[in-house]
Write a structure and sequence with these properties.
about 160 residues; alpha+beta; Beta Polymerase, domain 2; 6-stranded mixed beta sheet; 4 helices; globular; Polymerase_NTP_transf_dom; nucleotidyltransferase activity; Polymerase nucleotidyl transferase domain-containing protein
């Protein structure tokens, strides 16, 4: 059951929609051997999402070209592709669902999660809020640990 709406927060309906999507994509990723990591990042990962927040996902795969055409997005009901942009080792595919929720999929190789050393951009994304959704080999757990250890050394 959803609670009352809270100012500055997503509606209970939107939270339920995001939760369902996160569960769906985690199950979907678990069925694909080439997906070696899946992270929820950003405001939903750190539980600070606002009413207009998008969902940010980092998908790490050994077969990047397979996910750059967007055909797979139909399985996840991601809706309409509204933007593609390159951010160094990550390619952003931004989708708008029928409900208006925007989902930013960052597609990259496992190298994005390298820990020796951690890339500054990767470090920023992870330390800004990250929740592991799929990590069959423990690569993302190692990345999070490395980022947090590095953060402690800086303080």
């Amino acid at each position: 059951m959803s609670g009352p709406e809270q100012p500055g927060r997503p509606s209970p309906r939107r939270i339920a929609e995001v939760d369902a999507f996160v569960q769906r994509i985690a199950r979907w990723a678990a069925d694909r051997a080439d997906i070696v990591g899946l992270l929820l990042v950003g405001s939903f990962a750190r539980d600070t999402a606002g009413p207009d927040s998008d969902v940010d996902i980092v998908l790490l795969t050994t077969d990047e070209p397979r996910y750059l055409d967007g055909a797979w997005a139909v399985d996840l009901r991601l809706g309409r592709l509204v933007r593609t942009r390159s951010w160094g080792p990550i390619t952003e595919l931004r989708y708008a669902t029928a409900s208006g929720l925007e989902v930013e999929m960052g597609i990259g190789s496992p190298g994005w999660a390298a820990t020796d050393p951690v890339d500054p951009g990767t470090h920023r994304v992870v330390t800004d809020g990250a929740r592991v959704l799929h990590d069959p080999a423990g690569m993302l757990a190692e990345l999070l640990a490395a980022c947090h250890a590095e953060g402690r050394r800086r303080t």
